[in-house]
């Protein structure tokens, strides 16, 4: 494959500024230029997508695909928003950024678990009201010895499991492969999901969004969880039936949740999850990391070399 010009779509601005990313790719070979609309041009300061052989984007951009590029890379790990059949029919290679989010999402997950366990979110809310309020005697607890079920043991799930084990937690996991994972005491098959979550103080969701995982936590699963259980979702919003979760929280079927992802994003201002004291809402920001542009640039640089040499790129989806 010949790659002379790589267009970086402005949707990647949610992850990093173009200048930092382009600077990290300096010397890679192809020219690196910003792109946005269909035409680009001098007025916008962006290049015409039709002049590019490949693109880096955050979200799927139909007008980029319509130029029939040889390759598109997404800075996301999940590709549920990309029409894979369309990429395949056009012969466009799609690669993603899976494998780059373990530390950021792993750290965020532990932070959310600690907030719920130590009631830190309550203290932060009280600070705004200038309230000095000690928690109820049985509200706060510590992580060592508690059981956590990590659903999905890929890069992110494995990073979460490793951190939980280091904190002295009892860690079980859910994934299709029975192969052992560092820090995980037992691996359950997805068909055994209900057995895995039963008895767990924390249930952490790290699965990709697929037909099999869509709605995997609903009324039935919530009822199987402990009444003091806490749900943490850093996967995709549609993995959880939000209506069922809201009902379970109101009824006390589960004790609380920390949610970084939602069925509709941004979370609508009138959504009941905003007003629930036992819920922590974060804006799909578990992946946030100032150095992410370096990791993506290294992946893109390596794949430029592979594709030019006629080799298989890393993280190929289509």
Which percent bin holds the helix content? 25-40%
Unreliably modeled segments: 39-43
**Span of the ends, CA to CA:** 16 Å
- Structural class label: alpha/beta
Query: How many domains?
Result: 2
How are strands sequenced across the largest beta sheet? 8-7-6-9-10-11-12
Q: Using the alpha-carbon principal axes, give the shape.
A: elongated
Question: Count the strands?
Answer: 12
The major beta sheet can be summarized as: 7 strands, parallel
Rounded average pLDDT = 96
Query: What's the CATH class label of the largest domain?
Result: Alpha Beta
Q: What's the helix and strand layout?
A:
Layout: E1 5-9, H1 18-24, E2 31-35, E3 54-57, H2 62-65, E4 71-74, H3 84-90, E5 93-95, H4 102-118, H5 120-128, E6 147-151, H6 155-166, E7 170-174, E8 186-188, H7 193-197, E9 202-205, H8 219-224, E10 230-233, H9 242-251, E11 256-259, E12 279-281, H10 292-308
Parallel strand pairs: 1-2, 1-3, 3-4, 4-5, 6-7, 6-9, 7-8, 9-10, 10-11, 11-12
Helix pairs in contact: 1-10, 4-6
Molecular structure report:
The chain is of the alpha/beta class and 318 residues long. It has 10 helices and 12 strands. The strands form 2 sheets. It has a 7-stranded parallel beta sheet with strand order 8-7-6-9-10-11-12. A 5-stranded parallel beta sheet has the order 2-1-3-4-5, with helices on one face. Helix 6 links the parallel strand 6 (147-151) and strand 7 (170-174). Helix 1 (18-24) packs across helix 10 (292-308) and helix 4 (102-118) packs across helix 6. The longest helix has 17 residues, at 102-118.
What is this structure, in a nutshell?
With 318 residues, this protein is of the alpha/beta class. 30% of the residues lie in helices and 15% in strands.
């Amino acid at each position: 494959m010949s790659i002379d010009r790589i267009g970086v779509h402005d949707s990647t601005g949610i992850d990093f500024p173009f200048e930092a990313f382009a600077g990290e790719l300096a010397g890679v070979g192809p020219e690196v230029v910003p792109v946005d609309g269909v035409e680009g041009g001098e007025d916008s300061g962006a290049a015409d997508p039709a002049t590019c052989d490949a693109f880096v984007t955050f979200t799927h951009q139909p007008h980029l695909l319509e130029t029939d590029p040889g390759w598109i890379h997404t800075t996301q790990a999940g590709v549920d928003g990309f029409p894979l059949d369309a990429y395949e029919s056009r012969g466009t290679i799609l690669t993603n950024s899976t494998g780059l989010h373990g530390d950021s999402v792993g750290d965020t997950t532990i932070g959310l678990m600690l907030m719920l366990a130590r009631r830190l979110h309550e203290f932060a809310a009280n600070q705004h009201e200038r309230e000095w309020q000690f928690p109820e005697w049985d509200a706060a607890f510590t992580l060592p010895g508690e059981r956590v079920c990590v659903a999905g043991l890929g890069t992110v799930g494995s990073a979460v499991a490793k951190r939980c084990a280091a904190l002295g937690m009892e860690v079980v996991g859910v994934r299709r492969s029975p192969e052992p994972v560092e820090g995980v005491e037992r691996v359950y098959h997805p068909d055994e999901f209900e057995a895995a979550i039963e008895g767990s103080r924390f249930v952490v969701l790290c699965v990709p969004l697929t037909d099999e995982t869509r709605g995997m936590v609903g009324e039935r699963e919530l009822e199987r969880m402990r009444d003091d259980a806490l749900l943490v979702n850093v996967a995709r919003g549609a993995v959880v039936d939000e209506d069922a979760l809201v009902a379970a929280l109101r009824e006390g079927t589960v004790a609380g949740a920390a949610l970084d992802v939602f069925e509709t994003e941004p979370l609508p201002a009138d959504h009941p999850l905003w007003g629930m004291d036992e819920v922590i809402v974060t804006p799909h920001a578990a992946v946030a990391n100032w150095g992410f542009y370096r990791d993506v640039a290294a992946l893109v640089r390596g794949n430029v070399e592979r594709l030019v040499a006629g080799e298989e790129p890393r993280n190929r989806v289509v």
